[in-house]
TrEMBL record:
Main location: membrane
Lineage: Bacteria, Pseudomonadati, Pseudomonadota, Alphaproteobacteria, Hyphomicrobiales
Alphabetical UniProt keywords: Cell membrane, Heme biosynthesis, Membrane, Transferase, Transmembrane, Transmembrane helix
CDD domains found in the cross-reference section: PT_UbiA_Cox10
Subcellular localization: Cell membrane
One biological process term in Gene Ontology: heme O biosynthetic process
Annotated TM spans: 33-52, 58-78, 99-119, 125-146, 153-172, 178-198, 227-244, 250-270, 290-311
Organism field: Bauldia litoralis
Membrane topology designation: Multi-pass membrane protein
Physiological role: Converts heme B (protoheme IX) to heme O by substitution of the vinyl group on carbon 2 of heme B porphyrin ring with a hydroxyethyl farnesyl side group.
One GO cellular component term noted in the UniProt record for this chain: plasma membrane
Name by which UniProt lists this protein: Protoheme IX farnesyltransferase
């Protein structure tokens, strides 16, 4: 079902051509998202069995970070109409009218080409191809299609955010392995409960913008059930690195304890109602989910460095 067309909410994104500041161009990169991309990609690189020269590792991380920034810029260019409606996003450069849409598009396109080309030349073309696919999937498949047409937008679109450790692994080894795919699966399964927790207390924002997030389409109760289900599966999947032998006992303990805490918070959300207490439960889960993913990958990174993998 066609839920919202790009031009339905605001057919014009400021006719004038404002010049964005350096800060606006930096904001287009979505630096907070970029930091997570860099961290998970670095983990994939360090965990890879082959060594890589530190200079090449830095070059690869820069290329992956720039590719993530390109995705963010293209997203803000296309989504300016709905960003203007949502309180959470209306301060973004294009939505706020501080930057011309064409400048954001050109910036994102230029960074896309540059990042993929640079990664291919610095490491290998498998990693570059995966980066190109990630940019395309986020900017085109997710932003232009899934986000506006289906409540499963976050589920399917989560593949883009889950690929950085696979790209990092491929940059070092030139291959994709079961280990990198397990890292992908953890982030992929983490994405729905993370964003659905946010959407529970931002439902009116999404409804006003016409974005078919799960709480808008299926209701809060169905969303809470889905959050709990995904949280359980994610917590179990997070034990796979230890079970498959590429993570140690420290990871197993931390993943187990934090997984139980994550499921506990998801259960609290499941049992809550659409009231201030329920909103607080959703906010708590959203905040903890960020810490959870960071801790998991931090332990994997520390263990990999201790086991002698990664940088040569």
């Amino acid at each position: 079902m066609a839920y919202v067309e790009r031009s339905e909410i605001d057919p014009s994104i400021d006719a004038e051509e404002p010049l964005g500041s350096v800060g606006d161009f930096f904001a287009l990169l979505k630096p907070r998202v970029m930091s997570l991309v860099i961290f998970t990609a670095l983990t994939g690189m360090v965990m890879a069995p082959a060594g890589v020269h530190p200079i090449l590792a830095v070059a690869a991380l820069i290329a992956i970070a720039v590719g993530a920034g390109a995705s963010g810029a293209l997203n803000m260019w296309y989504d300016a109409d709905i960003d203007k409606v949502m309180r959470r996003t209306r301060g973004r450069p294009v939505a706020a009218g501080r930057m011309a849409p064409g400048d954001a598009l050109a910036f994102g396109a230029m960074l896309s080409v540059a990042s993929v080309t640079f990664l291919g030349l610095a490491t290998n073309w498998l990693a570059a191809g995966l980066l190109a696919f990630t940019i395309f999937f986020y900017a085109v498949v997710y932003t232009m299609w899934l986000k506006r047409w289906t409540p499963q937008n976050i589920v399917i679109g989560g593949a883009a955010g889950a690929l950085p450790p696979v790209i990092g692994w491929a940059a070092v080894t030139g291959t994709v392995s079961i280990e990198s795919l397990v890292l992908f699966a953890i982030i992929f399964l983490w994405t729905p409960p993370h964003f659905w927790a946010l959407s529970l207390y931002k439902t009116e924002d999404y409804r006003r913008a016409g974005v078919p997030m799960l709480p808008v389409v299926a209701g809060a109760a169905a969303t809470r059930r889905q959050i709990l289900a995904y949280s359980v599966v994610m917590a179990l999947a997070a034990m796979a690195p230890f079970v498959l032998g590429f993570a140690g006992i420290a990871y197993a303990v931390i993943a187990g304890v934090s997984g139980i805490a994550f499921v506990g918070l998801a259960l609290r959300v499941y049992r809550s109602e659409a009231n201030p207490a329920g909103e607080r439960a959703a906010r708590d889960l959203f905040a903890f989910s960020i810490l959870y993913l960071f801790v998991l990958f931090a332990v994997l990174l520390v263990e990999a460095l201790g086991f002698g993998g990664g940088l040569a």
